[in-house]
Amino acid sequence: MSAADLDARDPLAGIRAEFDLDPAVSYLDGNSLGAPPRRVADRLDDVIRKQWAGRLIQAWDDGWWDAPERIGDRIGPLIGAAAGQTVVCDSTSVNLFKALAAAVRLQPGRDEILVDARTFPSDGYIADGLAGFTGHTVRRVDPVDMPAAASERTAAAVVNHVDYVTGRLHDMPAITDGLHAVGALAVWDLCHSVGVLPIQLDGCGVDFAVGCTYKFLNGGPGAPAFIYVARKWLDRFEHPLTGWAGHRDPFAMSSDYTGSAGIGRARAGTPDILAMSAVDAALDIWDLVSIEDVRAKGLALGDFFFECLDELLPSASVLTPRDPARGHQVSVAGTAAQLKALAGRGIIGDFRPPNVLRFGLAPLYTRYVDVERAVHGLVSVQTG
Amino acid sequence: MSAADLDARDPLAGIRAEFDLDPAVSYLDGNSLGAPPRRVADRLDDVIRKQWAGRLIQAWDDGWWDAPERIGDRIGPLIGAAAGQTVVCDSTSVNLFKALAAAVRLQPGRDEILVDARTFPSDGYIADGLAGFTGHTVRRVDPVDMPAAASERTAAAVVNHVDYVTGRLHDMPAITDGLHAVGALAVWDLCHSVGVLPIQLDGCGVDFAVGCTYKFLNGGPGAPAFIYVARKWLDRFEHPLTGWAGHRDPFAMSSDYTGSAGIGRARAGTPDILAMSAVDAALDIWDLVSIEDVRAKGLALGDFFFECLDELLPSASVLTPRDPARGHQVSVAGTAAQLKALAGRGIIGDFRPPNVLRFGLAPLYTRYVDVERAVHGLVSVQTG
Q1: Does residue B61 belong to the interface with chain A, where contact is any CB pair within 8 Å?
Q2: How is the quaternary structure described (chains A, B) (predicted)?
Q3: Are B211 and B194 in contact (CB under 8 A)?
Q4: Residue B209: which pLDDT band, with cuts at 50, 70 and 90?
C-alpha cells in the first residue's frame, strides 16, 4: 500500500491538526522534542493574562499549588499508575537523583547501584553523583543481563525502558521481577516510552520511575519531568531534596521538615506554573486518543519504515529491532553530514555519536509520507 | 507631601505601564510573586509559535541550550557578579542543595553547617536533607550571631540577605568576612534582595549564592532560580546533581561525567525553555531602569509607609526596621482575617504565621497611593 493510502486510512490522521507543524517538513525527531500542540500557546496566554495578571498571588490557591499532583495524575493512566503516585516537578535527572537516594536509604547494607549500560548517559552521571556522596559502587550492566547481575549487594537498578540509541524496548515485568528476586529495587526511566506505548508500573510492581514530558508528551522544550513512587513506598520515600514544596504543611513555615503524606513529598521547590501549564495543555490530547491506538500506529509506522528500507535501501544498517520489542523510532547507521543533508530536504531526525541517525515516530503527528520521504532521503544521501 | 504628589514626582512612575496590572488593585505582594511584565506573554507566544513550531529540534542550537548561562549573565549586574559565574536553572531549593553539597566537599574535616535561624524554612530543610546524607550537624543561628557562632568546625553557613518575615537586611560584607575568618564558606540566599537593592557578591567575596526570579525579578510563578559560584571555586565546584546539562561536552554522550569548565557545571537537567524565556523577557526591564533608582524608591516607599502608620495607625506593631538596613517590605502584626478583609478592598499583601502581615514594595510598579491605601485599609481592619 502506498504511503498516501496508509495516511488516508490512518484513524489518527486527523490528530495532526492539533499540532502546529509545517506540512512541508517531515519532523521525525519527536523522540527528542515533541511538536507544539496548538493549544499550548493559547493556554499560556490565558495563564499569564488571566491567572497571573488577574489573580496575582491569589492564583496559588486557585489550582497552582496543587498542579504538580493534578498533572501527575493525568499522566498516571499512560504509565499504569493509580492516582496519588505520580507528580510533575523538576527535571528527569533531579527526579532520578531523588529516586536513587530514597532507594539506597531503604536498602541499608546494600552497597551497589546498577545502571543500564545503554541508558541515556545522564542517568549514569546521576547515579555516579549520588554514589560520590554515599560511597556506593555504581556498576553498568546491559539491561538484559540485569537480573543475573543483581545480587544481595544491589540496592537498586536503573533501567531505561527504551534504549535511546537503538529503540530496543526492555522487558519491564521480567527485569523488575528479576531485581525483586534478590531484593533490589527497580527504578525505570520512561523518557522514551511514555506517551507511545502502554506501561503498567503498578501491574509490574515497579518501585520508582521517572520520565520527561518533552518528547512524546509534547510538553515543550525542557518541560518539567515526573516521578512515580509506588504506593507501598510512599511512607518511607526519603530523599535529600527536601524543599518546602514537599512539606506536609508548607505554609505553616515550620523550621522542621515533615514530608507530605502522599506523593507530594517527592516535590522540592516552588512549582513552575508556566512550564506546568504547557504540559497540562499538551496532555489534553489524551482526551481524544487512546494509548493503544497510538502504540498500534507507532508499530505500523516502524514496519512501514522497514519495508521501505528493504525495498529502496537494502544496504542500510538498521539498529532497531524489527520485532515489536521496540519503541517508536528507527535508527540507521549514518553520519552527521547525512543528517544535515536530510535537514536541507526538510527531513528532520537527529544524530547520536558515533554513527547513528535516529528517526522518531510520533503517531500523533507523524505521517506515513514522512517515513517514505525519510527513506527516499536516506537513499539519496547514502547512495547518491 | 500627598501620595498623589509623590507619584507625580516619581521618576519610575512610567515603568508601571510595563506591567499588566489592574489600576484598581493595590498589589503589595511583589515580594512573594512579582507582577506580570506585559512583554512576557508576547515573548512566550513567539517562543512557541516561531522558535518551537518554526525550528523544532533545531532551536536548541539557536540559543536554547545556552540560555541558562546567557540569562544568568543578565542577572549578574544586579548581584555584582562578573560574567560567567551565574546560571539560571532548577529551583532555589535545588540550587541551595548543590551549593551546600559542593561546600561541604570543599571542606573535609568540618562537620557542621550553620543555617540562618530566621531564613525562609526551605533553606533549613535543604540543609537538613543534605546533612541526613553526609552526617553533618546543622545548627540554626541568628544571622547577626553567625560570625561569633562559626568555628573551625563550620563548613559553610547559609544566610538569607533579607529576613522574609521582618524585612531586616543583613550585613553581607561583615557576615561574609566573619565566616571567612574561621575558614567557613558563605552561601547567601538572595530571594528577597535581588532586583530591589544593589548586591556585590564579587565585591564581598561571597562563595556561593542562590536566588529566585519570581519575586522582584517578575519571571513568573515558580520561575527558574539562579545560582552563583565565585570564580575562585568554579574548578572545584562538585555537586551530586550531575545531570547531562552540566557536562563539559553533553552531546558526546560519554558514559563518564566531566563537569563543564565554567558555571555550566552547576546545571543539572535539560533547561526549561518556556520558563527561561519568561525570565529573559522580564529582565528586559533592566534596560530601562537602574538598580540604584529602584533601591531609592523602595526605601522612599517604606519611609512613606512608616509615616502613614505614624500618623494614622500609631498602635500598629511594626516588625520592619526603620533604618535603611531593610529590604522592600513592611511587616505589621496582624491576622489572617485582616489580610482577607484587606483583599476584599483591593489591597493584596500576604500573611505569615503566626501573626505577620507583609506588604511588599516593588518600585517598578508599586505606587505611593498603594501604600496610602494599604495603611487606610489597616486602620479600618485593625481599629474599625
Answers
A1: no
A2: Homodimer.
A3: yes
A4: very high
Contacting residues of A for B130, CB less than 8 Å apart: 240
Ranges of residues in chain A with a pLDDT under 50 are: none
Does position B177 have pLDDT exceeding 90, yes or no?
Answer: yes
The DSSP H or E segment spanning A229 is strand A226-229
CA distance B271 to chain A (A): 5
Q: What is the pLDDT of residues B51-102, one digit of tens each?
A: 999 999 999 999 999 999 999 999 999 999 999 999 999 999 999 999 999 9
DSSP for B141-196, written as a single string = E-GGGHHHH--TTEEEEEEESB-TTT-BBP-HHHHHHHHHHTT-EEEEE-TTTTTT
Cell output for A206? 515497579
Q: Which residues contact B369 (CB under 8 A, 6 or more apart)?
A: B3, B4, B7, B26
- B-chain residues within 8 Å CB-CB of A101? 133
Is pLDDT above 90 for B237? yes
- Asked if the C-beta of B60 comes within 8 angstroms of chain A's C-beta atoms, the answer is yes
Distance from CA of A253 to the nearest CA of B (A): 6
Nearest to B10 by CA among B325, B374, B304: B304
State which H helix or E strand residue A332 sits in: strand A329-333
Count of pairs with CB atoms under 8 A, one residue in A, one in B = 269
B120 is catalytic: yes
CB of A38 closer than 8 Å to CB of A18: yes
Residue A11: the pLDDT is 98
Could you give all domains of chain B from N- to C-terminal order, each with its CATH number?
Answer: 3-38+289-383 (3.90.1150.10), 66-270 (3.40.640.10)
CA distance B355 to chain A (A): 11
**DSSP codes of every residue in B92-152:** HHHHHHHHHHHHHHHSTT--EEEEETTS-HHHHHHHHHHHHHH--EEEEE-GGGHHHH--T
Catalytic residue chosen out of the listed positions A214, A228, A237, A305: A214
Q: Looking at chain A, which residue has its C-alpha nearest residue B27?
A: A56
Peptide bond into B250 cis (omega under 30): no
Average pLDDT, chain B: 97
When CB atoms are compared, the residue of B48, B91, B257 closest to A40 is B48
A44 and B274 within 8 Å at the Cβ level: the answer is yes
Phi-psi region of A290 (alpha: psi -120 to 50; beta: other; left: phi over 0): beta
A244 and chain B in contact, CB less than 8 A: yes
Q: Residues of chain B with pLDDT > 90: what percent?
A: 99
Confidence category of residue B178, pLDDT binned at 50, 70, 90: very high
pLDDT digits (tens, 9 = 90+) for B267-285: 999 999 999 999 999 999 9
Contact at CB, B224 and A117, closer than 8 angstroms: no
From chain B, pick out residues whose CB is under 8 angstroms from the CB of A128.
Answer: 242, 257
Q: What is the pLDDT of residue B190?
A: 98
